[in-house]
């Protein structure tokens, strides 16, 4: 029995220390080690990845910050350009300096001031936009609103009701009874619009009417705006950008009713101004001629003129005489004139909205302007293009001045990783320029050529890319 135990004991010792047993133990250690190494390697990879992600996030944040800073710089640039142009009496939003607004360098990033190219939907245009070259939603008559491209009778009437103080419904329009039945419900404003986008609150308005197919507001026919309903928006796939009326409307245009020296104008409809008028005419022309003009115009006996163009036609002045004094005259007692359309800068579509004008009149105004180079300093020139009835018909709605400009600011970080887009409106009417509107358009996506971003991401210089696109 003892022997047997000894044998078992021996065999137990033998088993425990047999080569197979040692190899098995070593194998287990190896497997455990491999597992530990694998887990550690996995951890290291996860950690490295998280560091890489953090680094990428940080880099993107830096790029985004850079783009924001470029936007600040671009705004200062725009304000400086407006101030400089005002001092040098140059046109701020002209078409001859678009390279000053394309791919401008700030730090190692760039900005563009984009504006809709109304002549071509396949080419970008750069520069500031003149808000006085647009129809003002707050002062335009029903007839003028109805002539905007793509406008409906319902929306035009509803705009009138939205901004007028009363609660009388214009045919096709809407007052609070309509808006209170909407969900969510709200009151009719009965006050002027403060932004153009506010129009979307008005009955009959929609993004389709306002923006048309140009849903990213870059004035360019992007692929998704010409593929039917394959991607948003649901366009008509006809190879043309059928835009809305967004580019033709404003709520900002406003000017003081003063002459170019900043002094009050002589009101030809005010009998107490008669002696001032006589003095002006005598200074400008001979005394006899001044008396002739005074008598012919009937300004002392019946000073009722719709506008200064009607005064001109009654006075028997030559157009040359009139152009010398037109800026010093007014037929309005208002100290501020809102929503006048600048006939020197407005596009054809806007001129066409002026009362009584037909397509041929708008075209004639544009071609006269183009063939006469310098911007005239009074509205007298329209009498050279239009007949008396039409000139007097638009005389109360036009100006040759602009004080409000908008800028579509696009900013790209130096490495192409981040961009920002803002729309700004700058008002210089009260003297120094003021930013009266600032809204992010970044959510519309990168609005220019994708090659620009791709080149910067690859570290290529932007100049070569921009040049190759011209
Ligand atoms: Ca109303
Ligand atoms: Ca577009
Ligand atoms: Ca589409
Ligand atoms: Ca189309």
Quaternary structure state of the chains depicted:
single chain
Strand content bin: 5-15%
Low-confidence stretches: none
Give the % helix: 40-55%
Count of individual beta strands? 15
Q: Overall mean pLDDT score?
A: 92
Characterize the largest beta sheet: strand count, sense, and whether it forms a barrel: 7 strands, antiparallel
Overall SS class: alpha+beta
How far apart the termini lie comes to 107 Å
Globular, elongated, flat, extended or rod-shaped: what is the shape? elongated
Q: How many separate helices?
A: 16
**Estimated radius of gyration:** 35 Å
Bound molecules: calcium ion
Explain how this protein is built.
With 470 residues, this protein is of the alpha+beta class. Among the domains are: 2-62; 258-333 and 356-396, no CATH class. The chain has 16 helices and 15 strands. The protein has helices at 2-16, 19-87, 142-146, 153-163, 176-179, 207-211, 274-284, 287-297, 308-315, 319-325, 348-351, 359-371, 382-385, 388-394, 450-457, 462-468, and strands at 104-106, 109-115, 125-126, 129-130, 135-136, 249-250, 254-256, 266-267, 329-330, 336-338, 341-342, 398-399, 404-412, 419-427, 434-440. Helix 7 (274-284) crosses helix 8 and helix 8 crosses helix 9 (308-315). The longest helix is centred in the first third of the chain and has 69 residues, at 19-87. Bound molecules: calcium ion (4 copies). One calcium ion (CA) binds at residues 214, 216, 218, 220, 222, 225.
